[in-house]
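Chain X:
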Amino acid sequence: MRKIALFALLGGGLFAVGLLVGQKTATSEKTLVHAIAFKQVEGTTEQQIQEVWEATRKMAGAIPGLKRVWVGKVTNRGPSYTHGIVMEFENEKALQDYVPHAAHREWEKIYFKVRTPGSNTVDVVGE
């Protein structure tokens, strides 16, 4: 009888945990995402791309309101775009403050050397 009760209790507990995990849904952040896709200039070296990535990461520590950054290769846009940068800002004001910031101006000096004109940028405001 005790074994049956123990198995029933364990089974009920596992069912409850599974139910809670199964009900978990994705949530939307109330932040702003600034995403850039660009094509590298012909002849750009891997070292130059790494310099852009490092400069991008440095901005996250230097610009108020810039929370996180992601950098990497674009995998689903054919030859149009080769690399991407995504930045998460606390809000739209933080993005506006980023544009004239000295760290952003320094980043542009490095970034503009490796990208062809015509990058694609979108901003998404979380709801």
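Chain Y:
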Amino acid sequence: MAIDSLKAIRAGDSTQWIRVRGTDVSNPVLLLIQQGPGLPMINEARRFGRLLGLEQAFTVAYWDQRGCGRSLRRSKGRAGISLEQMVADTVSLLDFLRNRFGGKTYVAGFSFGATLGASAAAQRPDLVAALVAVGMDIDGAAAGNGAYDFALAAARQRGSRRATRQLEAIGPPPHLKPKEFATRVRWATNFGGVTTSETYATLARGTGRQPGPLTRLFARGRPADRPRYQRDTGRAAARARHHGPSPHRAPPGSTRRHGARPP
């Protein structure tokens, strides 16, 4: 990488962090705005670079928003975070990127991140070259009701007494308290409402088993582009990690012919 750096910036009254990666400083800048609120993006950099190769065409900025990830480390508290404040943070970051690299920034936002990107672009179109908005919040009340109904129905269907008890305790939206909101988001995510086979914990840590919405958006058709032997090798490695080595494979130093059945 010609560029791979962590940078602290001031946005409003807080210090926030970005990681900038790219192979050519002359490439246009792409800002990725994570879904959330509360989900980091910097920890996705290596995985996205490996799976998508965005850095070949863009100088990519991965941003940990106010109140999450690396930007939470020196935070004085999470109180006072609002949509207006986070949109202002987005504008500040776009302004920083223009001053640092020159020119307008391409923006890709996901869910809540798409809302931030669209709002910032509406305020400062002079800073945005193009906007890709995926799953943007159009009707927040309807989205909250849908997420709650989905989580509660899934909890009851799966017989999860803990999830059912917690969801029934908070009741239907609006969920204005952080604990209520976190309960709804956690169970909706754990039951596959964000990404199939993921949990809130794996998404928050960036250790997911399946590609997330960003990966799927940019990598459609990508698995078919990989040589078959690479895909088969990956599957074999996954099976070995889960089940242990094959009982039919000769141990190191053995003279038994590979693939022969044991007596």
